[in-house]
Amino acid sequence: MGDPTTTHAAEVARAYYDSADVDGFYTAVWGGDDIHTGIYEHPDEPVARAAQRTDARMAERVADLLGPGRTVVDLGSGYGGAARHLARAHGCRVVALNISDVQNRRHRELNVRHGLDALIDVVAGSFHRIPAPDGRFDVVWTQEALVHSGDRAHMLAEAVRVLAPGGALVLTDVMAADDAHRDELRPVCERLNVADLATPDFVREQLTRLGLGQVRFDDLSENLLPHYTRLAEDVRRRRRRNGDELAGEPTGAFSDAYLERLRANLPLWVDACEKGLLSWGIFHARR
């Protein structure tokens, strides 16, 4: 049996991402492809476009390890936007490990639609027990997944375990600023059903302790405010129509009650960004 803390966190994450409301939100507002923080060139840029820029920027950090014959594991791969970027742009093979059956099903469908299913293997499972031998992958890639771990030190240890000598880890996560007080972030944590957030210092210390070198953090926290402001504005403008549309855009099931919760919760994230309580960026390190 797994550790009760990590097992509980995994089940909470599975229930969250498998819910029709959350799936509908990520489809309608985030684009249903990349569901992580974006890098914005201007505040009015579509969320999906900014999120795709994050994929490209992360790939730049490990570009020497990407290409035909190279292997990447994407931990918490969501709908597979990053996996498809890596397969399409670099020709590498990607193992996409994810716990949500709903996301995995759509991920596979999109891979087939884009003709990339031969390069991407979607695997149902937990990043706390990666189904791979030691040193299996040239690159370990993960975006906004660490936040859902019930044992973040263990998750990072698993990530390093499957990393080949000379390989690289590249990671993003929405984190607490190093000087933020835990109680100040309680409202935003409750939306994600997590107790707290990691900090950049925690991630840096763990990666160093695990023996990785060249540990770098590209601090891109300035993107958090435009990101959550844009999400809050998009949600505020939307009205349900015909049971399955928001402002005329196709989406999955998306209840009125959940929409109202979003309208209440997303401004809390905007407020946390304005107060400097959150941090986000790209960690990259070498083994």
Overall description:
With 287 residues, the chain is an alpha/beta fold. Helix content is 43%, strand content 20%. The protein is built from ten helices and twelve strands. The strands form three sheets. Strands 3-2-1-4-5-12-7 form a seven-stranded mixed β-sheet, sandwiched between helices. Helix 3 (47-61) crosses helix 4 and helix 9 packs antiparallel against helix 10 (256-274). The longest helix has 19 residues, at 256-274. The model is unreliable at 240-252 (pLDDT under 50).
- Major sheet: order of its strands? 3-2-1-4-5-12-7
Number of helices: 10
The total beta strand count reads 12
What is the average per-residue confidence, as pLDDT, rounded to a whole number?
A: 91
Elements, N to C (H/E): HHHEHEHEEHEEHHEHEEEHEE
The percentage helix is 40-55%
The rough form would be described as globular
Distance between the termini: 30 Å
| Class computed from helices, strands and strand pairing | alpha/beta
How much of the polypeptide forms β-strand, as a percent range? 15-25%
- Give Rg in angstroms: 18 Å
Largest sheet: 7 strands, mixed
Q: Segments where pLDDT lies below 50 for 5+ residues?
A: 240-252
Summarize the structure.
The chain has 287 residues and is an alpha/beta fold. The chain has a seven-stranded mixed β-sheet with strand order 3-2-1-4-5-12-7, sandwiched between helices. The chain has a three-stranded antiparallel β-sheet with strand order 8-9-10, with no helix packed on it. About 5% of the residues have low confidence.
